[in-house]
Design brief:
The chain is mainly α. It contains five helices and no strands. The model has no long low-confidence stretch (mean pLDDT 94).
Length: 114
Amino acid sequence: MSTGYLVVVLATAVATGAIGAAAAARASFVRGFMTAVGVPDSWLPWLATAKLAGAAGLLVGIAYRPLGVAAAVGLVLYFTGAVAAHLRAHGYATIAFPATYLGLALASLVLTLA
């Protein structure tokens, strides 16, 4: 297990867990982004749960690699959908946020598979 793998996976888990917790707490900035891209407020608990589960899966995946792969794939799919939602809604001013999380998830997936 390399140091780079641990740093990237831990950074992804912390960042995703933090935004998942903010979504679970219904933070105004999260709700604002979601409203701006046309995501119904009723989806917030489900999306927060997906982020938190992905973050937890990455952490457990350090010890049990198949779970880490599944979590990373799930987060890549989740944040791909988030980027697509921003593009569809012409939310170019805020697309950097989901794109950054997508980059972290992709890096975690690549390093978990390596």
